[in-house]
Amino acid sequence: MKILVVGSGGREHALCWAIKRSPLCAALYCAPGNAGIKDVAILVPLSANDVAGITAFATAEGIDFVVVGPEEPLVLGLADALRAAGIPTFGPSQAAAALEGSKGFMKDAVARFGVPTAAYGRFTDIGAAKEFVARHGAPIVVKTDGLAAGKGVTICQSVDEAYAAIEEAMVGRRFGDAGAELVIEEFLDGEEASFFAICDGTNAVALAGAQDHKRAYDGDQGPNTGGMGTYSPAPVLTPAIEAQIMEEMILPTVRGMAAEGKPFIGVLFAGIMVVKGPDGQPIPKLLEYNVRFGDPECQVLMRRLKSDLVPLLLAAAQGDVSGQNPEWHHEAALCVVMAAEGYPGDYLKGTRIGNLAQAGQVAGVEIFHAGTKEGSDGAILANGGRVLGVTAIAPRVADARAKAYEAVDRIDWKEGFCRRDIAWRAMARGL
Ligand code: AMP
Ligand code: GLY
């Protein structure tokens, strides 16, 4: 098959890396890709959001299967356009991608499907929003309805902070149209994890869980980011909790979306908060859905996946995952993100990264590129906030972590930084 992956981040590098190993893959393309993806795929210079351009390319090139990485093109209708052109596509329709594109849509939908989640309200009126906050008190969470590049969520420790967040979004228009409507919801206190399932429109098969580190600095300090590191499996997602997530969240959502005429085809990424019940028992609650793989969760999932990724994604696109049974390496995988100094604020682009080949020689290590490009002299240059995902696999989390940092330490990049405490929760559990 000729396969096209859409996107340019570490997630897409990991997807390309896994797809390239499949005997089903005869030729692999990536639009637009990056300097690392170039080693495994033919780069196509089209923006991931260029729906018409990508559809025209896939048609002209005779692409047999498209895998869409990021949410934005899905929300823009890329999967609809590709399927309309007769090209099997892994990724939800625009209507189904609203599970991520509109938090209000997501909350109303999962309320109808009976999924356990935080209590909430939806607001377009500033007075009503403030009145809701006054009634519920703090801590409380204020979220923009639309996509806001991961910055639309404010955890408010006081009522005044929540009022300020509401004003900033609705009056200050800090997030533009994305913040014209707000979701305000109950604060959930617990341990967060990411869970993934592959959906075929009516049914779903569980993948695996992972744990991300959203804050920029060690000790979970500093500003929120897209994710500074991950590991899988996530010990907080026990087999019993995973089964509960499938039964109470994923399957009701897939069936509900189908019944409402918006079948979900693709990977459903459930952001989970495991809270403590009245008797101290762990209870998973849904924080949010994303309609794509997590980044950098995808890197550790692809590293642990033992079976062929292509038949699994293709089965979803073709509408039947019932025969699929993904197999996993029992080892732990861990990914350390290296970011450009200043991220998630302003950061320098174009700084040189050296010694990547030597770093990649550490046993069990794969370096997935997130934001890189090739300089005119062939050097690898930083070209984004998150730049590399140094990913290792080993029997124990502690060993995977040691290997990942050994590789990080071999990389010669003065303008880069990373967290040094990835998987601290697993370390604290002695794993
Ligand atoms: P989101 O953009 O919805 O993924 O939210 C970003 C982050 O905010 C999540 O990963 C959580 O860490 C946190 N968060 C979102 N909603 C809640 C909530 N209801 N209670 C506690 N934390 C939350
Ligand atoms: N790492 C979290 C995300 O991809 O949204």
Automatic annotation (TrEMBL):
Pathway: Purine metabolism; IMP biosynthesis via de novo pathway; N(1)-(5-phospho-D-ribosyl)glycinamide from 5-phospho-alpha-D-ribose 1-diphosphate: step 2/2. One of its GO terms (biological process) is 'de novo' IMP biosynthetic process. GO terms for molecular function: ATP binding; metal ion binding; phosphoribosylamine-glycine ligase activity. It comes from the Bacteria. NCBIfam families: purD. Pfam families: GARS_A (PF01071), GARS_C (PF02843), GARS_N (PF02844). Its cofactor is Mg(2+); Mn(2+). This is Phosphoribosylamine--glycine ligase. SMART domains: GARS_A, GARS_C. The keyword Cytoplasm does not apply. It catalyses: 5-phospho-beta-D-ribosylamine + glycine + ATP = N(1)-(5-phospho-beta-D-ribosyl)glycinamide + ADP + phosphate + H(+). It comes from Niveispirillum lacus. Keywords: ATP-binding, Ligase, Nucleotide-binding, Purine biosynthesis. Its EC number is 6.3.4.13. Belongs to the GARS family. Residues 107-318 form the ATP-grasp domain.
